Amino acid sequence: MKGRVDGMRALVTGGASGIGAATAAVLRREGASVWTAGLDDGEDFVIDLSDAGAAQRVFLATGEIQIAVLNAGICRPSKLLDTGIDDWQRTLDVNLSATFWLLQECGRQMNGGSIVLTASTNSFDGEAGLIAYNASKAGLLGLVHTAANELGPYGIRVNAVCPGFIRTPLTEGAFHDQAFAKKYFGALPLGRGGKPVEVAEAIVFLASPAASYITGATLFVDGGQMAAKFGTWDETTDSFDGLQWKRPTPR
After folding, report:
1. Nearest to 199 by CA among 236, 241, 164, 243
2. In what order do the strands lie in the sheet with 33-38?
3. Distances in whole angstroms, Cα of residue 27 to Cα of each of 117, 150, 229
4. 51-72 burial, b for 16+ CB within 10 Å, e for fewer?
5. Is pLDDT of 239 > 80?
6. Rounded to whole angstroms, how far apart are CA atoms 67 and 15?
7. Other beta carbons less than 10 A from residue 79's beta carbon
8. Nearest-angstrom CA–CA distance, 59 and 61
9. Closest CA to 111 of 50, 164, 51, 67
10. CA 148, CA 155: separation in Å to the nearest integer?
11. Could you tell me which residues come within 8 angstroms of residue 101 by beta carbon, excluding any fewer than 6 positions away?
12. How far apart are CA 28 and CA 44, in angstroms?
């Protein structure tokens, strides 16, 4: 039985852990040959992608690809009035500029295919203490919309996933903070945080021929966070088990 991306060649940035590693694993499971690139030692290509020349060097090494998952990113929490030039510039360099350079090279090198960017629910909201991260993730949607418009005539689709609160090495500590998790997950219709593989499955769908008429789109993978303005759960009727809110089955 063939997989969804059988025989395709794929690049995943930030592919050594979290959402990137899960995406690489699902792509391989579905039949693709996968290369990863980023700063972590576990990448196939250990390289600083914020260097404007890095994208070209990666493509020279991989050869032609049909799928590019531009996922690499960092988060340096800091409030608006406290953010210094180093944190601001590094966040934009890694999250936005590196993605731009790679997207540009994809447009030059790919002969059709699919590009998926990892944006965020923070592309839309203004979570306090994350000014640089929020700005960089909002900027990614500008790249998606413009690139979809300009690359569509060449058969290249460009989309984004917008994950919510996903359990990765970056967020692991918060999942162990019961007070934080109870409050945060209480605002999510599904009542829990997400798993990297759940985002990976959405990415692979967008990258696959099953999404052949989808471009310029953003797909929330957030447990309903962006659909629930005032939250869903009620402590008087519902319970929280440390990882997930639950409601008694109606009788």
Report:
1. 164
2. 45-46, 33-38, 9-13, 67-70, 113-118, 156-163, 218-221
3. 15, 26, 34
4. eeebbbebbeebeebbbbbbbb
5. yes
6. 14
7. 10
8. 5
9. 67
10. 10
11. 49, 50, 51, 52, 54, 55
12. 14
3-state helix, strand, coil in the chain (%, to 5): 40, 20, 40
**What are the residue numbers of the active site?**
133
Q: Which two tokens mark 197?
A: 């593989």
Tokens found for residue 111: 């002969």
Q: Which amino acid is at 9?
A: R
Quick one: residue 239, left, alpha or beta (phi over 0 = left, psi -120 to 50 = alpha)? beta
Position 106, amino acid = C
Tracing tokens 């998952």 back to the chain, one arrives at 69
* Paired tokens of 131: 């000014």
Taking the model in full, what pTM does it have? Answer: 0.95
Q: State the residue for tokens 């070209």.
A: 56
pLDDT tens by residue, 124-174: 999 999 999 999 999 999 999 999 999 999 999 999 999 999 999 889 999
Does residue 27 have a pLDDT over 70?
yes
How far apart CA 50 and CA 38 sit, in angstroms, is: 10
